[in-house]
Specification:
Elements (H helix, E strand, L loop, with lengths): L3 H12 L14 H4 L1 E10 L2 H6 L6 E7 L5 E8 L4 E10 L5 E5 L4 E9 L4 E9 L5 E8 L6 H13 L7 E3 L16
Antiparallel strand pairs: 1-2, 1-8, 1-9, 2-3, 3-4, 4-5, 5-6, 6-7, 7-8
């Protein structure tokens, strides 16, 4: 279990990335985007993600924005016997819908490519390091389900972002962790 936590953290880092000339939701509204989302599908070229994708479950993401327009995300990932929490703060990257984070080892970009605010959001992330950029595409939904049409749209978009369908995981529902962060069973 202890070995799984660092690996899960790496998976999270691989999932939280964005890209160069990727579109951003026109007239992005932070107010409408704020709230609870579920990560229901993801695709990435990150080697850690690819090794762990078959063991992952849907996670809960609480999104808020600082007065300066920076993106704050609280993520809850279900593990074998507990809920793992991660907090991220990314700075607005010039316009609403584009966010950046920089550390000593990497630069990360996150873009809200498309959203209808009430049902789904498609996020594109890139993590720039010394090696090849790690790219991720994520499908967030307000409920834990995604329609077959939305999943098909997401699959088609994966191919246009330089990713392959074998890099995709549709995450199974998880009733183990709830927004408050506690553990419960269905």
């Amino acid at each position: 279990m202890m070995l799984m936590l660092p690996s899960l953290a790496l998976v999270l880092l691989c999932l939280l990335q964005a890209g160069a000339e990727v579109p951003i939701q026109p007239d992005f509204s932070t107010e409408q985007f704020t709230g609870t989302w579920h990560l229901v599908a993801a695709a990435s070229n990150c080697s850690v993600f690819l090794k762990m994708k078959d063991r992952m479950k849907s996670s809960i993401i609480s999104v808020s924005f600082t007065p300066e327009g920076n993106l704050a995300m609280n993520l809850v990932w279900p593990l074998q016997d507990k809920c793992q929490h991660f907090e991220l703060l990314l700075q607005q990257g010039g316009q609403a819908g584009h966010y950046m984070g920089t550390s000593v080892q990497e630069q990360r970009e996150l873009r809200v490519m498309e959203t209808d605010y009430g049902h789904y959001a498609i996020m594109h992330e890139v993590q720039h390091e010394q090696q090849e950029p790690r790219i991720a595409l994520q499908l967030f939904t307000r409920e834990q389900d995604a329609s077959p049409q939305l999943l098909q749209k997401f699959k088609e978009l994966i191919l246009t972002m330089g990713l392959k369908l074998d890099m995709l995981v549709i995450l199974p529902k998880s009733g183990e962790c709830h927004e408050g962060g506690g553990w419960h069973s269905q």
